[in-house]
Amino acid sequence: MDTTDLNTEPQPHVMLVEDDLSLAKWIGDYLSAQGYLVTLATRGDEAVHLIKSDNPDLVILDITLPVMNGFDICKEVRNYYDRPILMMTARNEESDEILGLELGADDYVTKPVRPKALLARVNALLRRKNKDYQDELSKTVVRFGRFAIDSNSRTTTLDDLPVAISSNEFDVLWILANKAGETVSREALVKELRGIEYDGFDRSTDILISRLRKKLNDNPSTPYRIKTIWGKGYLFATDAWT
User: Fold this and answer.
1) Fewest C-beta in 10 Å: which of 73, 87, 117, 143?
2) What is the tens place of the pLDDT at every residue in 128-169?
3) What tens digit of pLDDT does each residue of 194-241 get?
4) DSSP states of 16-64 as a string?
Protein backbone atom coordinates (compact mmCIF):
# COMPACT_ATOMS: atom_id res chain seq x y z
CA MET A 1 0.00 0.00 0.00
CA ASP A 2 1.30 3.43 -0.94
CA THR A 3 1.56 5.48 2.25
CA THR A 4 2.70 8.67 0.53
CA ASP A 5 0.98 11.73 1.96
CA LEU A 6 -0.74 13.27 -1.04
CA ASN A 7 -1.04 16.58 0.81
CA THR A 8 2.70 16.95 1.32
CA GLU A 9 3.95 20.20 -0.17
CA PRO A 10 6.66 19.75 -2.81
CA GLN A 11 10.16 20.85 -1.88
CA PRO A 12 10.99 24.35 -3.15
CA HIS A 13 13.51 23.96 -5.98
CA VAL A 14 16.64 26.10 -5.72
CA MET A 15 19.08 26.10 -8.63
CA LEU A 16 22.62 26.97 -7.56
CA VAL A 17 24.90 28.34 -10.29
CA GLU A 18 28.43 28.12 -8.91
CA ASP A 19 31.68 26.74 -10.35
CA ASP A 20 33.49 26.42 -7.00
CA LEU A 21 32.58 22.83 -6.21
CA SER A 22 33.54 22.94 -2.54
CA LEU A 23 31.40 26.04 -1.95
CA ALA A 24 28.58 24.56 -4.03
CA LYS A 25 28.65 21.38 -1.95
CA TRP A 26 28.28 23.06 1.42
CA ILE A 27 25.57 25.44 0.17
CA GLY A 28 23.74 22.49 -1.39
CA ASP A 29 24.07 20.36 1.73
CA TYR A 30 22.97 23.22 3.99
CA LEU A 31 19.89 24.14 1.96
CA SER A 32 18.98 20.48 1.50
CA ALA A 33 19.03 20.07 5.28
CA GLN A 34 16.60 23.01 5.48
CA GLY A 35 14.10 21.25 3.19
CA TYR A 36 15.09 22.59 -0.23
CA LEU A 37 15.66 20.59 -3.40
CA VAL A 38 18.97 21.88 -4.77
CA THR A 39 20.32 21.36 -8.27
CA LEU A 40 23.68 22.63 -9.54
CA ALA A 41 24.96 24.26 -12.71
CA THR A 42 28.67 25.03 -12.98
CA ARG A 43 28.83 26.86 -16.33
CA GLY A 44 27.05 29.96 -17.54
CA ASP A 45 25.71 28.48 -20.77
CA GLU A 46 24.50 25.40 -18.89
CA ALA A 47 22.69 27.62 -16.37
CA VAL A 48 20.77 29.50 -19.07
CA HIS A 49 19.54 26.23 -20.53
CA LEU A 50 18.59 24.68 -17.18
CA ILE A 51 16.81 27.75 -15.83
CA LYS A 52 14.62 27.77 -18.93
CA SER A 53 13.91 24.04 -18.93
CA ASP A 54 13.57 23.44 -15.16
CA ASN A 55 11.98 26.77 -14.09
CA PRO A 56 13.27 26.53 -10.48
CA ASP A 57 11.55 28.40 -7.67
CA LEU A 58 14.70 30.44 -7.05
CA VAL A 59 18.16 30.83 -8.59
CA ILE A 60 21.32 31.52 -6.59
CA LEU A 61 23.65 32.97 -9.20
CA ASP A 62 27.39 33.52 -8.86
CA ILE A 63 28.88 36.36 -10.92
CA THR A 64 32.18 34.84 -11.97
CA LEU A 65 31.52 31.74 -14.07
CA PRO A 66 33.04 29.93 -17.06
CA VAL A 67 31.74 30.75 -20.57
CA MET A 68 29.14 33.32 -19.44
CA ASN A 69 29.16 35.51 -16.32
CA GLY A 70 26.30 35.97 -13.89
CA PHE A 71 25.38 39.44 -15.15
CA ASP A 72 24.88 38.15 -18.70
CA ILE A 73 22.93 35.15 -17.43
CA CYS A 74 20.62 37.38 -15.39
CA LYS A 75 20.01 39.68 -18.33
CA GLU A 76 19.22 36.81 -20.70
CA VAL A 77 16.98 34.72 -18.47
CA ARG A 78 14.91 37.71 -17.36
CA ASN A 79 13.32 37.51 -20.83
CA TYR A 80 11.41 34.42 -19.69
CA TYR A 81 12.14 33.74 -16.00
CA ASP A 82 10.15 35.81 -13.48
CA ARG A 83 11.06 34.05 -10.25
CA PRO A 84 13.63 35.27 -7.68
CA ILE A 85 17.32 35.57 -8.55
CA LEU A 86 19.78 35.92 -5.66
CA MET A 87 23.23 36.95 -6.87
CA MET A 88 26.54 36.12 -5.16
CA THR A 89 29.67 38.21 -5.52
CA ALA A 90 33.18 37.70 -4.17
CA ARG A 91 33.84 41.43 -4.38
CA ASN A 92 32.32 43.87 -1.94
CA GLU A 93 31.80 46.37 -4.75
CA GLU A 94 28.78 48.64 -4.90
CA SER A 95 29.05 48.60 -8.71
CA ASP A 96 28.40 44.83 -8.73
CA GLU A 97 25.36 45.32 -6.53
CA ILE A 98 23.94 48.12 -8.66
CA LEU A 99 24.50 46.29 -11.94
CA GLY A 100 22.95 43.08 -10.64
CA LEU A 101 19.83 44.89 -9.43
CA GLU A 102 19.59 46.87 -12.65
CA LEU A 103 19.66 43.64 -14.68
CA GLY A 104 16.80 42.17 -12.67
CA ALA A 105 18.30 40.39 -9.66
CA ASP A 106 16.08 40.48 -6.57
CA ASP A 107 18.80 40.40 -3.92
CA TYR A 108 22.50 39.70 -3.43
CA VAL A 109 24.96 38.23 -0.95
CA THR A 110 28.69 38.72 -0.71
CA LYS A 111 31.28 36.01 -0.16
CA PRO A 112 32.28 34.52 2.19
CA VAL A 113 28.64 33.47 2.44
CA ARG A 114 27.17 33.17 5.93
CA PRO A 115 24.73 30.23 6.12
CA LYS A 116 22.01 31.87 8.20
CA ALA A 117 22.12 35.09 6.17
CA LEU A 118 21.82 33.09 2.94
CA LEU A 119 18.88 31.10 4.30
CA ALA A 120 17.13 34.28 5.48
CA ARG A 121 17.40 35.80 2.02
CA VAL A 122 16.17 32.63 0.30
CA ASN A 123 13.21 32.33 2.68
CA ALA A 124 12.29 36.01 2.30
CA LEU A 125 12.44 35.94 -1.50
CA LEU A 126 10.27 32.84 -1.72
CA ARG A 127 7.82 34.22 0.81
CA ARG A 128 7.34 37.37 -1.27
CA LYS A 129 6.46 35.24 -4.30
CA ASN A 130 4.08 33.04 -2.36
CA LYS A 131 0.36 33.46 -3.11
CA ASP A 132 -0.52 33.24 0.59
CA TYR A 133 1.75 36.22 1.23
CA GLN A 134 0.13 38.18 -1.59
CA ASP A 135 -3.29 37.35 -0.14
CA GLU A 136 -2.22 38.97 3.13
CA LEU A 137 -2.27 42.35 1.42
CA SER A 138 -5.31 44.11 2.83
CA LYS A 139 -5.90 46.37 -0.16
CA THR A 140 -5.97 45.60 -3.87
CA VAL A 141 -5.50 49.10 -5.29
CA VAL A 142 -4.00 52.21 -3.70
CA ARG A 143 -4.59 55.52 -5.49
CA PHE A 144 -3.24 59.02 -5.07
CA GLY A 145 -4.33 61.45 -7.78
CA ARG A 146 -2.82 60.29 -11.07
CA PHE A 147 -0.91 57.41 -9.41
CA ALA A 148 -2.24 53.89 -8.77
CA ILE A 149 -0.65 50.66 -7.61
CA ASP A 150 -2.49 47.33 -7.84
CA SER A 151 -1.34 44.43 -5.65
CA ASN A 152 -3.48 41.88 -7.49
CA SER A 153 -2.01 42.45 -10.94
CA ARG A 154 1.23 43.87 -9.47
CA THR A 155 1.04 46.85 -11.80
CA THR A 156 1.66 50.56 -11.37
CA THR A 157 0.26 53.43 -13.42
CA LEU A 158 1.00 57.15 -13.56
CA ASP A 159 -1.06 59.52 -15.72
CA ASP A 160 -3.00 56.44 -16.89
CA LEU A 161 0.17 54.97 -18.36
CA PRO A 162 1.85 51.78 -17.09
CA VAL A 163 5.14 52.18 -15.24
CA ALA A 164 7.55 49.31 -15.88
CA ILE A 165 9.02 48.33 -12.52
CA SER A 166 10.70 45.15 -11.34
CA SER A 167 9.26 42.79 -8.74
CA ASN A 168 11.45 44.07 -5.92
CA GLU A 169 10.78 47.69 -6.91
CA PHE A 170 7.06 46.92 -6.71
CA ASP A 171 7.43 45.49 -3.21
CA VAL A 172 9.22 48.61 -1.96
CA LEU A 173 6.66 50.91 -3.59
CA TRP A 174 3.72 48.92 -2.22
CA ILE A 175 5.03 49.19 1.35
CA LEU A 176 5.65 52.94 1.04
CA ALA A 177 2.30 53.65 -0.67
CA ASN A 178 0.42 51.76 2.03
CA LYS A 179 2.14 53.93 4.64
CA ALA A 180 1.74 57.16 2.68
CA GLY A 181 2.42 60.22 4.80
CA GLU A 182 4.46 58.18 7.27
CA THR A 183 8.22 57.83 7.47
CA VAL A 184 9.31 54.23 6.89
CA SER A 185 12.78 53.46 8.22
CA ARG A 186 15.41 51.73 6.16
CA GLU A 187 15.57 49.11 8.92
CA ALA A 188 11.85 48.35 8.55
CA LEU A 189 12.11 48.08 4.77
CA VAL A 190 15.07 45.71 4.90
CA LYS A 191 13.35 43.57 7.53
CA GLU A 192 10.13 43.35 5.51
CA LEU A 193 11.75 42.80 2.13
CA ARG A 194 14.68 40.57 2.99
CA GLY A 195 13.78 39.00 6.31
CA ILE A 196 17.02 40.15 7.93
CA GLU A 197 18.13 42.95 10.23
CA TYR A 198 19.67 46.02 8.62
CA ASP A 199 23.44 45.93 9.11
CA GLY A 200 24.09 49.60 8.46
CA PHE A 201 25.87 48.96 5.15
CA ASP A 202 23.23 47.44 2.89
CA ARG A 203 22.58 49.77 -0.07
CA SER A 204 20.06 47.69 -2.02
CA THR A 205 17.04 49.59 -0.68
CA ASP A 206 18.62 52.95 -1.57
CA ILE A 207 19.23 51.70 -5.11
CA LEU A 208 15.63 50.56 -5.48
CA ILE A 209 14.35 53.92 -4.22
CA SER A 210 16.61 55.76 -6.68
CA ARG A 211 15.33 53.66 -9.57
CA LEU A 212 11.71 54.20 -8.51
CA ARG A 213 12.20 57.96 -8.42
CA LYS A 214 13.45 57.96 -12.00
CA LYS A 215 10.54 55.86 -13.20
CA LEU A 216 7.98 57.97 -11.33
CA ASN A 217 9.36 61.26 -12.69
CA ASP A 218 10.53 62.42 -9.29
CA ASN A 219 13.19 65.09 -8.92
CA PRO A 220 16.50 63.25 -8.29
CA SER A 221 18.18 66.20 -6.51
CA THR A 222 15.17 67.26 -4.41
CA PRO A 223 12.69 64.37 -4.51
CA TYR A 224 9.14 65.35 -3.62
CA ARG A 225 7.24 62.13 -4.35
CA ILE A 226 9.38 59.65 -2.45
CA LYS A 227 11.13 61.88 0.05
CA THR A 228 14.26 61.11 2.04
CA ILE A 229 13.79 62.01 5.69
CA TRP A 230 17.41 62.27 6.74
CA GLY A 231 18.35 60.02 9.62
CA LYS A 232 14.90 58.40 9.64
CA GLY A 233 13.95 56.83 6.31
CA TYR A 234 11.61 57.41 3.36
CA LEU A 235 8.21 59.02 3.02
CA PHE A 236 5.68 58.53 0.20
CA ALA A 237 4.05 61.95 -0.22
CA THR A 238 0.26 61.97 -0.50
CA ASP A 239 -0.04 65.32 -2.25
CA ALA A 240 2.52 64.94 -5.05
CA TRP A 241 0.41 63.05 -7.63
CA THR A 242 -2.21 65.57 -8.72
Assistant:
1) 143
2) 766 544 554 456 889 999 999 998 778 899 998 999 887 778
3) 665 655 556 778 888 998 999 999 998 999 999 999 989 999 999 999
4) EE-S-HHHHHHHHHHHHHTT-EEEEE-SHHHHHHHHHHH--SEEEEESS
107 has which bridge partners? Answer: 86
* Spatial distance between the Cα atoms of 178 and 97, rounded to a whole number of angstroms: 27
Q: What's the Cα-to-Cα distance from 221 to each of 27, 156, 204, 214, rounded to whole Å? A: 42, 23, 19, 11
Q: Which amino acid is at 179?
A: K
Tell me the whole-structure pTM to 2 decimals: 0.61
State the maximum Cα–Cα separation within the chain, in Å, rounded to a whole number: 69
Residue 189 φ then ψ, to 5°: -65, -45
**Three-class SS string for 64-75?**
CCCCCCHHHHHH
